[in-house]
Amino acid sequence: MVEITRQADTVRQARTPLSRERVLDAAVALADEGGVDALSMRRIAQELGVVPMALYKHVANKNELLDGMIDALVGEIDPPAGDADWKTVVRLRVLSARRMLLRHPWASRVIEVRMRERAAPTPAVMAYLDSMIGIFRAGGFSVGLVHHAMHVMGSRLLGFSQELFDDSSDREPDPDALPPQEMAARFPHITELAMAVAHDEESVVGSGCDDQFEFEFALDLTLDGLERLLP
């Protein structure tokens, strides 16, 4: 009975026009079921009832597939809560990201690997980070303090604990990067932050992107927070 139902689902799917969204949804479902290491174009095609070559019209290769899956998952994170202070808004969104990762246990490793391999985050991750920077800015944070806050939060912004916020200037340029004007229009808060990190030498909390400074900044912030909890 289960096999008959699966065959019926495959026939129904085959009659539905193939789209990038359908490919990504199928890939996410298969990764949830068996892990991302077992994911292949052949398995996705079989799930959708199409030939593998049909998938390449929507995703060019495995890396583009993984990037699209990341963007699909970021789309599951709740939007900012209205009428709340910055701290509440950030906390709720990070916890929503955490719930997303608990639904998709394979995702944190893929996000970490792909963000380190890419010259820039995926478009949905860029939009999410831009939104979070905007929340800090609207809450009264200076650009310099936002810069260090992003390092402190690291990948906790995406629901797990691993430093991913890398704004160093020695990375290889992204060949697919948006032109500066379009970048500024789509991601104004990231653009403002990038410009400040590159040029502002007068930040009261330190300028640029220095690993030792960021480590000590996060450590001191954590210790100060713990001290506040003492009786």
From TrEMBL:
Coiled coil (UniProt feature): none
Listed SUPFAM superfamilies: Homeodomain-like (SSF46689), Tetracyclin repressor-like, C-terminal domain (SSF48498)
Domain HTH tetR-type: 17-77
A Pfam entry, by short name: TetR_C_1
DNA-binding feature ranges: 40-59
Endpoints of the signal sequence: none
Keywords for the protein's UniProt record, in alphabetical order: DNA-binding, Transcription, Transcription regulation
Cited Gene3D superfamilies: Homeodomain-like, Tetracycline Repressor, domain 2
Protein name per its UniProtKB record: TetR/AcrR family transcriptional regulator C-terminal domain-containing protein
